[in-house]
Design goal:
Elements lengths: L1 H32 L3 E5 L3 E2 L9 H16 L2 E3 L3 H16 L19 E11 L8 E4 L2 E5 L2 E13 L5 E13 L2 E5 L8 H4 L3 H19 L7 E8 L2 E4 L12 E11 L6 E17 L4 E8 L6 E3 L3
Length: 309
Amino acid sequence: MEEAMFSKVMIRMLGIMVCLMMVSTGIGFAAQKGMRYSIMVTKFENHSGWHRQWDLGDAWGAVLTDSLNSAGNFVVLGEKDMRQEAMDEQDLAASGRAAGGGKQVVTGQMTPAQLLIKGDITHFDEGTSGGGGGIGFGGIRVGAGGGTSEINAVMYIIDSSTGQVLASKKCYGKVTKTGLSVGISKGGFSGDVGGFKKTNAGKAIEQAVDEGVSFLTSKLGDIPWTGDIVLVKGNKAYINRGSREGVAEGQAFRVGKLSTIRDPNTGEVLDQEVEVSGKIQTEKVKEKLSICNITEGTVQKGMTVMLPE
């Protein structure tokens, strides 16, 4: 009798502990899920052996950037080549070779990316070569018959501060159409993402990209969201995260100094940890900046900002 009652009590206690763990994990994930991560797409290398009038890597990058923007979890920065063009323009303005026109280009204003997305396209088949004749207009070819467009790619999620690969995903897209084939005519992909997605190739790429973005979104709970203290004035701390990144008024954060442990032989980052020294709470939130009250401990410029545990 006593053994039976003891077993019931233990089962109840175990059930309560499991529920508490589930609630705690859910709250932590929900808090992190509401934040947005700054992310940049680098050009995917085309190792598929497929080469035509349009650039496969450019098309993939445009569809991926569009999908990330639509996901709502990211602050999507310009692709690497776009940011390089912006920096080249800044260098030109700083050289004095360009007319000022009353406008001064300021350097050092580029938003840093917390995450980088890069990868390789390993296989691609446009699938419209066997459809017979057709007509082309606006870069799109429509012909009789059908075809199967498919693509394989590997996507890597990289921590921009360490260069460490946080996760990787093999992505696959396949679209089969009969009766009418839609492809890319001479002139190629010109940046019209909406028009490109209507083609068989575009639909296959979009399918693979969406698979990769869904995987990335599912991994955000494992990737710490961070910011930085950029200014301290009296009892006020300014952080480089605002409404754009999902910060809200009254939100609390932990603050501490980031320590990096490196391999002395290779320089590789082995681990990073933050020694918490203070806490802050947002008072005013702007688009890219938040002004916070220092509520506890020591807070200094350059320290790392993290979500509560």
